[in-house]
Amino acid sequence: MPLFTPPTVSPPIKPLGIFASLKAVRQNALNIIPEIAYTQPIVTGETGIRRWHMVQGPEGLKQIFLDNVENYPKSEVVLRMLRPAVGDSLFTSEGKQWRWQRSAIAPVFTARNVNTLAPIMTETARRTTTRLKASSGPTELVREMLSATFDVICEVALSGRDHFDSKAYSAAITQYFMTIGRTSLLDFLETPAWIPRPAELFGANSVKTMHNMVAKAIAARQNQPQKNDSTIADDLLDYMLKAEDQETGRRMNQKDLLHNLQFFIVAGHETTAIALAWALYLCANDQTIQTQAREEARSVLGGRDAGIEDIKQAPLIEQILLESMRLYPPVGFLARKARGPDRLYDRDVKKGDTVLLNLYGLHRHQDLWDHPAAFYPAHFAPEAVKKRHRFQYVPFGGGPRICVGANFAMMQAQIILMTLLSKFRFWPTKAAAPAPVMQMTIRPEPGITLEIEDLSNPATKLAQ
Ligand code: HEM
Questions:
Q1: How far, in Å, from the CA of 301 to the mean position of ligand 1?
Q2: Considering the domain boundaries, does residue 3 fall inside one?
Q3: What is the rounded (10 degree) CA torsion for 390, 392, 395, 398?
Q4: What is the longest distance spanned by two Cα atoms in the chain?
Q5: Distance (Å, rounded) from C-alpha 236 to C-alpha 308?
Q6: With a 6 A CB cut-off, is 275 part of the ligand 1 pocket?
Q7: 110, 146, 403: which to mutate for ligand 1, most atoms within 8 A of CB?
């Protein structure tokens, strides 16, 4: 059987100049990856007065993420896009402010805590099943997956949607991505932060809407009487309220709580939903793999919805998700700025150089993968993983700043995918193939539309 090769971008032959880069970044950041980045570990260029290096080799990424991490703080360009919404929270802070927050928040996401949240994820998978059973005809799945993962994050972050108008909140996120989340000419030229960007003015309302809802939810919890019932599991907000710096005993103030929860809600649901939607698209286009995954899921579940114990027995489901994030890493690029000189491969890095961590290019690098452009979950078979450089696959980043929610994201994605594949068969439609477009995350444009066959209802069987 030929492997399925899903859509990608057409790379420019040479690195782009400043205005072409700018136009490309605003439309789709993936368009700035030149062709040679898929065969070389590092590409160096100049945009205006700025020197940059695009790194997509595992050794170079290890140096930046881990060995010489102090030399590569996050780039101001990216921080500037995020700070209006999430202030100096874990993701956006550096130095002392980062260290104490990491030490307070990392324990919140230990496997033990995350495991207690699994029943909520199972319940969400059940609700998603019900919604999909009620849908008829071609269905757009990014929206469906966003709704599912938003459900999970609201339940685990705030015990429900009581303080949330989910439609208004989702609209605010989209507006935020389209305004403040877009790189502006001023950012590229690195003009001082106090010069107002037009996008910030347009996006200010979206920030207000999101903050008001999260702040209300926090206040409602703080005003609640202490719960005496020990059978009610803590949620993420409970854990955050109790979190403290192990060294100093410092706790989160209102602003820390607001900004970190705001980040969890946006980052935690958008990234996972996209990974799930791409996974369903890939399965729809490779019916052999989809059938194998369904058989695996059904042999474990019978007719049940998936839970924490089940996902451990479903390696193919996990491999499909990992492969989906290889081809479409939800975070396609990271940006750092060199604090001082260094050497990456054969290049001299100078103080002030911009360093782009090209996860999209790394994951499709032609020298590193058996089938760089094809859907091939066996890339993640245990023997293949063992042979690989640890930094060849980094959808969650690496080193001390690795994603704190990786366990949580994988668990919810596995529970949802396993449940859905056991109950439905997904088929491609004649809708235009989705194109990977990166603004802040790599989203499929114009969405992922699939036919859904409900396996418990013969009336939905499709003639293919
Ligand atoms: C498929 C889902 C996800 C992907 C692909 C993803 C990806 C990433 C990446 C690449 C980083 C590193 C950024 C850098 O080094 O500049 C990161 C950091 C982070 N992620 Fe995730 N993430 C996901 C889900 C989540 C979830 C569910 C949460 C929380 C609920 C979360 C919270 C965070 C936080 C707080 C950081 C910053 C950690 C630090 O700097 O110490 N992420 N994520």
A1: 30
A2: no
A3: 40
A4: 66
A5: 18
A6: yes
A7: 403
Q: Peptide bond preceding 446: is omega within 30 degrees of 0, i.e. cis?
A: yes
Exposure of 147 in the CB half-sphere (CA atoms within 13 A): 14
Report the chain's terminal Cα–Cα distance, integer Å: 18
Residue 383, pLDDT > 90, answer: yes
Q: What distance in angstroms lies between residue 396's CA and the mean position of ligand 1's atoms?
A: 6
Average pLDDT, the chain: 86
Q: Is 244 part of a structural domain of the chain?
A: no
User: Residue 370, Cβ neighbours under 10 Å: how many?
Assistant: 10
3-state class (DSSP) for residue 457:
coil
Q: Which amino acid is at 401?
A: R
Q: Quote the ligand 1 centre to 452 CA distance (angstroms).
A: 31
Number of domains in the chain: 1
Per-residue pLDDT band for 159 (boundaries 50, 70, 90) equals low
Question: Which structure tokens are listed for 13?
Answer: 């032959």
CATH number assigned to the domain comprising residue 362? 1.10.630.10
Q: Is 80 in the pocket of ligand 1 (CB under 6 A)?
A: no
Q: Which of 314, 343, 372, 416 minimizes the C-alpha distance to 42?
A: 343
The reply to whether 163 falls in a domain is: no
pLDDT tens column, 292-351: 999 999 999 988 999 999 999 999 999 999 999 999 999 998 989 999 999 999 999 999
Distance from the alpha carbon of residue 123 to the mean position of ligand 1, in angstroms: 24
Residue with tokens 């023997």: 383
Which residue's CA lies nearest to atom 21 of ligand 1? 403
Residue 10 lies in a domain: no
Domain that holds residue 291: 18-72+99-158+258-460
CA distances (Å), 295 to each of 113, 216, 273, 303, 422, in order? 30, 45, 23, 12, 8
8-state DSSP, 430: S
In terms of Cα–Cα distance, which of 162, 131, 169 is closest to 224?
A: 162
Q: Helix (H, G, I), strand (E, B), or coil: what is residue 28?
A: coil
